[in-house]
Structure formats: structure tokens, C-alpha cells
């Protein structure tokens, strides 16, 4: 089915909260094989809500609303839906009893206005409220449906399955829609587009589409979306397109879907049962923090030294290089981190975050060092942007260089022996 | 003005990314005194984008679009806006030259399709691209405006001021509108609302309004917005309301507007010409990274030890405490960091990020240690949420505790002498 999401709440229009429900609903709808061509956000205003519902029903087979089901006077989604469906609101005694029970359980007196949440458009299917006091609703409007879930995210999430079940019962044959995201690092969006352009053309007229998602420090994602009658066929199509794209993009692809650079590094490191330590200058702990963010990091991550002051590099890490923004410093920091913290693999960052130059080097000049045992090397990268962007990209560049080096990629570092 | 936000991107409709730009734009529009009655999200589809622009212009004085300004085949916002405005797209040589310069600086060849980003609807005002290759656009359509910013959040954020300036020039609203944000940490939103409720009532009917912005790790913001005939009067009103709110909230207010906890700590530290070092376990470098993010940190930040593996705590920091999730460990880590890294002030975090318990303590159990010279103490906090949330809140709690302790607040730590 084609579904329109209507988010209701003045706080959304004022930007006081982020609309996470819209994303949740969109994601669940897509994975259930539904398509979405439109999302509308309106305030707690009867005319606006009615307009959005009518536009949604005119353009889609179903509408899902989120928000406006609370007990207060500005929660008017029920009234708007009933008006669009052309049916009266009727008190559902089972819903009312459930609300009373919730307040009894909480040992709190129940305000009279909570009974508003027991009002249900005639003919609507009620989705029982388990997490809050507002029930969900599925309201038939002619040949179409309006489903309503609360604005509170965990209340909404609790009802999505039942909404999708109602949609499936209404339209049993949506087919299967599935997508897969290839995660890349190291290619600009336009260069990536150039490389993939032939696939865009080849896929023209097929149910398979490609899209780029530039997500900054997450790198650029290439999303494959396809549609078919059965899950196996759809999966086979995704597998085939992934193989084709990997053949084009090589190891610029570091993973798929939920993979992150740090998770990929974690897999490579645990694969060789190694332990990692880091030494950071300009990134100042950000590299360690991303590694620690991987659950189970304690199995392979020893720790790090944030050698922000040059003296720390010399005193704690035993760096002898005079210039700290240098290949020699990066190599010695990587070796020093592994030695001081008792790790097999050492990773180091040193460079100029800005705003001021350092040792005559402009902001964005970064050296990344990698040591495995006594073998080590470093590479310089030049990064654009302000202080935070330089630091963030330096961390991602370091993670990617470690990955490529551990994978033995020609784009990785070739390490050289350094005497202990 | 009444402004409609149009978010463009199939990835939004598929729920693959959260629409943070829509919130950013809505928040900035509201602070600038504009109203928003509608937000529409559509895919990378010409007909859908044209429909959304037309609906927006029909219902508002201006439309802001975000997304679809990239160089690739599916970035078609420029074409749709030109179609709605009824003007041709023309290549802007200054924009083209800037894009070429960006690629030159990066030492990368410029793909032909990047010239698509130099296409500008005739008569449009160009907002120079500083963070990416896509310029912003402000396109007059009859008596109304369409403004376009990129979908990449930091590129969009960089252009908001110029969009708002264009709106102000288009519709110079009577009088002056100004707002100030009080930054708080340590109070829940509902408790804060309780405390501030009397001010809401007192301000009823005046041109001054209060709003809460709960922004997670940034703490809860209280925004004062007021309107008046002259800048001085408006500033005086903001000053008076700030004083009133500070009297109510005390040192739960850590700063105003762009202040962050790390900047406030940086000011307090430089004020006493001290140097800081950190020792981190569960936060794994995140605390150091936030301190390093302050420009000029090299003047007062020495560095840190990420003692993720317990052995590092004992070997590198000289911690004697057996249990690492303990008051004694936090105190010894803070003292150890200052000693090993040659600092006057040491700050330490140790605890359980989860998902698994540690030393019998549940996830969210965190000890924060602070040492000034040989005087030190620690405090336990219990944090809710997943691994990343616990780590992030532990860092903010540590920064806040350092701030309160350095300010001599009764809510800070009372340090005790520890023999060297």
C-alpha cells in the first residue's frame, strides 16, 4: 500500500522536539513492503489536521497519524479523524475501564479529562494501550484506512505491529520491498556517483533503485532498494547488486547496513586475537571513544593516551621526534601506545586541528600512525573544515586506515620494522 | 512570516535517516519570530517536490527546502524550484569557480556533474557554500520566497543565518525580536517546569515568552523571547528575565546561549591558571575529546589516560583500589592522572557502561573523581539508558561536577587531603 504519515503536534512545528516517530513508522512501513510518497507535519489545530488527513487519503491508500491522542484539550486527533471519516465519537467502555485500571495500578486519582482518551470513532478498530493511557485506532474511511498511534515514542512503537497487521488484512498483497545499504569511506559523493552512474542506467526500468546518502562522518552510503513478489527473490536481487557494486567500488566499501568503521575494525582485531591501544593528539580521545563504543570492546581494547601537550608525547610515550606534526612522531606514538599500554596494535593521530597553524603546518594537516608489534608506518591526510570537523574526519580516516592495513589492502600502510 | 518547511529526500520517507534539519530550521524560525503551520516531506521526485512547494507557497509567506541540492542524478530540488518559480536555471560562474576551487584545494579532480550545483534559478540570491559544494538559494516567487539549503546538517546549519536575514529583508517585521537561552544541567524537565511555572503566569499577556528545549546531552535550555520597539529596551527585558530565572534556578544554570559545559570548565580553569588532565574508564576518551574541542585547549589541557582495561588503571595510573567501580578508584585515578600527566587538576570517570554488569554493579553506575593538587574526592551518579547514553551523560555529569567544584558551589565536591 501507499501510506502517508501525518505527524501532529505544535511542538514539532516549533522544533522543540525531533520527530523520531515519523522515522520509526517510515522504516517499519518500508520493511513491510509499503511505500511512502508523502509525510506531513501539522500543529494541534483542527483545520490543519483535517486538511492533512484529506491530502493523505487523496494521495495514498492509508494514513498513519502520530500524536494528538493525549487527554488534554489540545489533543484533538480523535475529533479530526472522526470528522474526516464522517462518523461520531463514542465512548468505548473497555478502553475507559483500562484507563481507570492504569491509574489504580499507579495509585493515582484519575483526572476526568482522561475519559477523552476512551472516545473512539464509530466502526474503528481499537489497539489496546499497554504502555500509556491512549489506545491506538484503525478507522476505515471508504476503501481506505486511517491509523492513529500516540506521539510518545515507546507508546507508538508498541502499536506498530498491530497497525501493520491491520494494513495487511486490508491489502493482503503489497509484495516485498527490501533495501540494503553499502557503507563507503574515502570517495567523494560525486566521484562515487560517477563510478556508479552506469548502474543507475542499467537499473532503469527495473524494480531496483540506487540512492546516495551523504552522512558526513559516517561516510557515504549507497542504498539498494528493490521490490518483488517473494522474499528469496528480493534477497537474491540485493545480493547480486551488492556484488556488482562491490566489484565497482572495491574496498572503498567497508561494510553494509549497521556496520560502522569501529565495528569493522573490532571484527578485524578480534579475528587475529590482537589487543589495541591508541595515542591521540589532535583527536584528543575521540578515536578511543569510538572504539569503546563497540559493545564488548573490553575484550580487545586496552586503552589510550591522550597526548595533547607535546611534553606528554615525549615523557609518557617516549617520542623522540622534535616535530610532533610529523611522520616520525606518528610512528613513535603508535609504537609507544602499544608498548606503554601493553597492546599488539597501536594507532596514533597527530596533527593540526586549528584554528591556528602548528609547526608551520596549516589546520587539517594530520598524520596517522599504525604499529603492529615492532612494524609501523604513518600516512599524512589533509582535511578541510573547522576544528571539530578536522578532528572527526581524522578519527574516521584513522579507523579506515587501520581497517585497510589489517585487511592487507593496497590502499593500506606497508609497515616497516622498527627496533624496540 | 508564516514559513513552510519542505524536507526533500527518499531516504527520509524510507526512514533511513532522521530529519534533524527540519527541527533545526523550525527551532531557528521560531526563535526569529516566524510561525510555522506546516511541514512536508517528499521524495526525490519532481512532481512531488513541485506539489509540496506549491502547497507551501499557497499556505505560507515563504518555503524553506532542505535536501536535493547534491551533484547526483537524484538531486533535483533546483529544477523543481525553477519550475515553480517559472524561471530558467542558469549557470552561475562565481558558484562554479568556487566549486572548482574546493576541488583544487582538496587536490582532487572535479567531476563534470558537480557543475550541476552551479545551476541557479534566474533572479535567485545565492548563499555562498562554505562547508560543502552546494550553495544555498533564495528564490523570489511573486510576493513570496523559496529558500533552499542542503540536506547535510552542518551545511544547512551554516546557511540558516543568511536565510533568516533574507526573510527579514523581505518582510521587516515591526520592532525588534530577541531571545536568550539559559543553559541548565542537573534538573529534569518536569522539575524545571515546576520551578519556572510562576514565571509563565507572570509573563502572561506580556511580549515576553519562555520555552523549554530539552536537548539531551546538552541539558535543558530555557529560551526567553521578547519583542519591543528598540534594541536597548529588548536587551534590558532579557537581562531582567535572566536575573529572575537565575534567582529561581541558581547554579543549575551553567551558561547562556552558546556556552557549553566544556567551555564553562575551560573558563574556570584558565581563570586560576591551572592545567587539567583526565583519566577515563567507561567514557573512554569522550571526556578528553569534549575538553579538546574548546579552541585554545592547549593552553590548559595536558592530556589524558584512557584506562579501559583495569590493568592500565593499576600499572599506568597507580590505582591501588581492588574494585575499579568504586569511590577509591575514582579518587586514585583523578590523583594519578594529575601526577602522571603533570597537571594541577585531575578528573576521572569509572563505572559500568553496560550492557553487562561489572563487579556486581548494574549498568549506569558511575563514579566521578576530581583532584586539585593533593586534595580529591569522588561522587557516584546513577544513569539510565543504553551504553552510549550512559557514557555521554557520564561525561556531562563529570564536566558539571568539575564546574560546581571549581565555583565552590554547595553542590560541588568537598575535597579532602590525600598524601602523595
Automatic annotation (TrEMBL), chains A, B:
Residues 4-171 form the MoaB/Mog domain. SUPFAM superfamilies: CinA-like, Molybdenum cofactor biosynthesis proteins. It holds the Pfam family MoCF_biosynth. Belongs to the CinA family. HAMAP family: CinA_B. This is CinA-like protein. It comes from Acidimicrobium ferrooxidans (strain DSM 10331 / JCM 15462 / NBRC 103882 / ICP). The lineage of its organism: Bacteria, Bacillati, Actinomycetota, Acidimicrobiia, Acidimicrobiales.
Amino acid at each position: 500500500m501507499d501510506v502517508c504519515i501525518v505527524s501532529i503536534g505544535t511542538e514539532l512545528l516549533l522544533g522543540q522536539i525531533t520527530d523520531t516517530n515519523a522515522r520509526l513508522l517510515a522504516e517499519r512501513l518500508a520493511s513491510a513492503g509499503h511505500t511512502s510518497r508523502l509525510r506531513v507535519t501539522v500543529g494541534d489545530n483542527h483545520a490543519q489536521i483535517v486538511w492533512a488527513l484529506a491530502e493523505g487519503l487523496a494521495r495514498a491508500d492509508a494514513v498513519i497519524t502520530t500524536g494528538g491522542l493525549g487527554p488534554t484539550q489540545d489533543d484533538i486527533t480523535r475529533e479530526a479523524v472522526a470528522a474526516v471519516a464522517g462518523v461520531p465519537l463514542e465512548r468505548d467502555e473497555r478502553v475507559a475501564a483500562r484507563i481507570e485500571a492504569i491509574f489504580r495500578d499507579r495509585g493515582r486519582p484519575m483526572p476526568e479529562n482522561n475519559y477523552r482518551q476512551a472516545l473512539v470513532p464509530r466502526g474503528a478498530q481499537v489497539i489496546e494501550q499497554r504502555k500509556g493511557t491512549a489506545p491506538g485506532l484503525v478507522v476505515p474511511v471508504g476503501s481506505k484506512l486511517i491509523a492513529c498511534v500516540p506521539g510518545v515514542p515507546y507508546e507508538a512503537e508498541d502499536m506498530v505491529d498491530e497497525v501493520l497487521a491491520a494494513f495487511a488484512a486490508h491489502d493482503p498483497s503489497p509484495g516485498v520491498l527490501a533495501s540494503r545499504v553499502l557503507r563507503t569511506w574515502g570517495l567523494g559523493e560525486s566521484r562515487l556517483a560517477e563510478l556508479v552512474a552506469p548502474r543507475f542506467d542499467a537499473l532503469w526500468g527495473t524494480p531496483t533503485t540506487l540512492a546516495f546518502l551523504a552522512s558526513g562522518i559516517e561516510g557515504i552510503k549507497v542504498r539498494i532498494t528493490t521490490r518483488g513478489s517473494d522474499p528469496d527473490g528480493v534477497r537474491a536481487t540485493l545480493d547480486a547488486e551488492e556484488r556488482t557494486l562491490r566489484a565497482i567500488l572495491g574496498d572503498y566499501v567497508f561494510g553494509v547496513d549497521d556496520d560502522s568503521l569501529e565495528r569493522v575494525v573490532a571484527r578485524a582485531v578480534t579475528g587475529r586475537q590482537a589487543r589495541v591501544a591508541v595515542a591521540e593528539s589532535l583527536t584528543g580521545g575521540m578515536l578511543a571513544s569510538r572504539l569503546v563504543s563497540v559493545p564488548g570492546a573490553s575484550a580487545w581494547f586496552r586503552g589510550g593516551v591522550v597526548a595533547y601537550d607535546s611534553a606528554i608525547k615525549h615523557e609518557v610515550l617516549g617520542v623522540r621526534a622534535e616535530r610532533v606534526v610529523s611522520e616520525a612522531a606518528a610512528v613513535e606514538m603508535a609504537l609507544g601506545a602499544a608498548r606503554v599500554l601493553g597492546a599488539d596494535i597501536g594507532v596514533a593521530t597527530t596533527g593540526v586541528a586549528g584554528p591556528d597553524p602548528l609547526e608551520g603546518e596549516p589546520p587539517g594537516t594530520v598524520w596517522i600512525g599504525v604499529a603492529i608489534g615492532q612494524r609501523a608506518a604513518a600516512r599524512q591526510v589533509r582535511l578541510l573544515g573547522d576544528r571539530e570537523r578536522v578532528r572527526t574526519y581524522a578519527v574516521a580516516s584513522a579507523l579506515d586506515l587501520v581497517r585497510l592495513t589489517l585487511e592487507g589492502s593496497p590502499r593500506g600502510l606497508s609497515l616497516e620494522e622498527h627496533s624496540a
